[in-house]
């Protein structure tokens, strides 16, 4: 079995695998006499359909029986209220400096105690879709939150006969030292003063919400968070941490494999935050020029020894803003969050998308949306693309040298997305650095740095930056980015030394040729590169140096700045 759920008596106890204080608090809640086990997707659908406030649309689930539902299943819509995005400010990670686990454990204890008055639902899924890497995850939620549970079971892999068999035949992750993932969630929670509980340990400035992760022992507690994305990314947070411990690069991005005319394969991995264009690039069909298979557009892992890749989830959690009512792609919707509804000319309930109701309308889309999906890519990854929205970076540059290639990923610069709920006072327009486009990392940053450096240095993976935002005021269009990608995949891209840089090459792209003789441009480019130096320098001191990178990483960036001088 891939992760451990059952223990011989001799393996139960203090200091043994799967047993810690936080996990003891979280896991015990799953066995309460107020807990109802939900074993099938059909059960979850019925519970969600009948949950107060659910809107049962008249849109049928496409080929419902193929994904484990009855043939008459309909697309369900549920709206959360005022909050329609993730809230990073609520995350507390055990092991990080300043995180008071003793106080947080008491918050979790009281939350579990208060849940005794509610009927709770226990659901299970697999995260990871190949025998090389499959972990089992458990979610406990109160009655009234059935839509979160149903979407969670759809987003990850529900326990179909095929995958149950696969899981039984899968290898033990970490030689049997990795326990199942357990997540206790109560979206209805609000802080109530009880003896022994102090909410100062919460990082949410309002002290109203908490996402508490103890990824060393594969457990989490999510409190006061209604948004489904917290549960999806919370689960991935745990799976990525397990993967990191076991020799994989954890990837928040997309990957596709091209089959070229001569039969050769090319595997491209793109890394970017929500709204960066990673899904667009991952699913681009290139007008049928190549055979294309898609691993996933959001979550996968790369084996740093074999360079093979495994998808972590079958479905897609996609924005609905670009999919108007009646759009052909909408036939693949399974559940929808934070959109509106109306009646069509036949009196049928239809979705109203395009973010009319609020920003960041979302949907779970079926795996069938991408008919060229695979769960594993055996061919070794050929290239990594860091997607940035930095107005000083041309549409594409190539990075030479493993230290610079990896540290550029560690200083990936972008703009905020509507998928995020920001703390008061945070400027949504400020350029921000999100290492490796993964704000869900729960382990030291150096772990990711070393893994991506290994791919470039030892496995000859090429590394590029692509800018999908504006370049000095001119928008880089999707056709530009896709055209650049095609040139690289076909081996027709001609890169040359870029100005004074010894480790950065450029391919000229019409309309976007940078002028290094322009003093204003040069000053802005230097400022943005210096920002990266400052970020890496700050990593060494912030959070007690938890995210410090090797000195070579800082030196690679300083070299770029010095060459601009």
Automatic annotation (TrEMBL):
GO BP terms, alphabetized: gluconeogenesis
Keyword terms, alphabetized: ATP-binding, Lyase, Nucleotide-binding
GO molecular function, one term: ATP binding
EC number(s) recorded for this UniProt protein: 4.1.1.49
EC supergroup of this enzyme: lyase
Domain of life: Bacteria
Pathway, per record: Carbohydrate biosynthesis; gluconeogenesis
Keyword Protein biosynthesis: no
Keyword ATP-binding: yes
InterPro entries: PEP_carboxykinase_ATP (IPR001272), PEP_carboxykinase_C (IPR013035), PEP_carboxykinase_N (IPR008210)
Signal sequence coordinates: none
Reactions catalysed according to its record: oxaloacetate + ATP = phosphoenolpyruvate + ADP + CO2
Pfam families: PEPCK_ATP
Family as reported in the entry's similarity comment: Belongs to the phosphoenolpyruvate carboxykinase (ATP) family.
Record protein name field: phosphoenolpyruvate carboxykinase (ATP)
Species annotation: Lientehia hominis
Taxonomic lineage: Bacteria, Bacillati, Bacillota, Clostridia, Lachnospirales
């Amino acid at each position: 079995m891939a992760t451990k759920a059952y223990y011989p008596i001799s393996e139960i106890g203090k200091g043994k695998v799967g047993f810690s204080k936080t996990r003891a608090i979280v896991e015990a809640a799953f066995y309460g006499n107020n807990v109802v086990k939900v074993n099938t997707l059909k059960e979850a659908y019925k519970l969600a359909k009948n949950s107060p406030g659910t809107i049962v649309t008249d849109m049928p689930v496409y080929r419902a029986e193929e994904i484990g539902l009855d043939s008459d299943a309909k697309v369900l819509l549920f709206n959360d209220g005022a909050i329609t995005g993730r809230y990073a400010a609520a995350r507390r990670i055990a092991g990080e400096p300043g995180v008071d686990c003793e106080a947080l454990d008491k918050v979790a204890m009281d939350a579990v105690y208060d849940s005794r008055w509610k009927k709770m639902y226990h659901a299970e899924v697999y995260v990871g879709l190949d025998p090389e890497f499959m972990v089992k995850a458990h979610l406990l939620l109160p009655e009234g939150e059935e839509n979160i549970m149903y979407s969670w079971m759809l987003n990850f892999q529900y326990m179909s006969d095929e995958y149950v068999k696969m899981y039984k035949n899968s290898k033990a992750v970490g030689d049997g030292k990795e326990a199942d993932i357990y997540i206790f969630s109560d979206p209805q929670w609000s802080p109530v003063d009880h003896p022994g509980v102090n909410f100062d340990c919460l990082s949410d400035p309002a002290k109203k919400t908490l996402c508490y992760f103890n990824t060393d022992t594969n457990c989490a507690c999510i409190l006061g968070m209604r948004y489904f994305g917290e549960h999806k990314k919370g689960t991935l947070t745990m799976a990525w941490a397990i993967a990191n411990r076991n020799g994989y690069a954890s990837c928040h991005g997309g990957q596709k494999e091209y089959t070229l005319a001569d039969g050769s394969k090319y595997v491209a991995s793109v890394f970017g935050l929500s709204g960066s264009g990673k899904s667009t690039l991952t699913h681009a069909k290139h007008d049928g020029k190549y055979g294309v298979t898609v691993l996933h557009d959001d979550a996968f892992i790369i084996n740093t020894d074999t360079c093979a890749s495994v998808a972590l989830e079958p479905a897609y959690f996609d924005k609905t803003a670009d999919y108007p009512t009646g759009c052909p792609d909408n036939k693949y919707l399974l559940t929808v969050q934070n959109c509106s509804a109306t009646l069509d000319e036949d009196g049928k309930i239809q979705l109203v998308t395009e973010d009319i109701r609020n920003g960041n309308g979302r949907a779970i889309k079926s795996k069938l949306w991408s008919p060229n999906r695979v769960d594993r890519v055996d061919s070794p990854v050929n290239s990594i693309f860091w997607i940035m929205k930095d107005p000083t970076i041309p549409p594409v540059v190539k990075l030479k040298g493993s230290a610079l290639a990896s540290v550029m990923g560690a200083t990936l610069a972008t703009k905020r997305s509507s998928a995020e709920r920001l703390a008061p006072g945070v400027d949504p327009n400020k350029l921000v650095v999100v290492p490796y486009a993964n704000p869900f990392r729960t382990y030291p940053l150096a772990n990711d740095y070393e893994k991506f450096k290994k791919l470039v240095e030892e496995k000859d993976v090429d590394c590029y930056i692509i800018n999908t935002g504006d370049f000095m005021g001119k928008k880089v269009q999707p056709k530009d980015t896709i055209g650049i990608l095609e040139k690289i995949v076909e081996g027709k891209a001609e890169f040359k030394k870029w100005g004074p840089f010894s480790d950065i090459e450029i391919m000229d792209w019409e309309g976007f040729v940078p002028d290094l003789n322009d003093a204003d441009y040069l000053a802005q480019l230097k400022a943005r590169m210096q920002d990266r130096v400052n970020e890496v320098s700050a990593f060494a001191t912030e959070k007690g140096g938890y995210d410090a990178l090797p000195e070579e990483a800082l030196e690679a960036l300083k070299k770029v700045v010095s060459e601009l001088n």
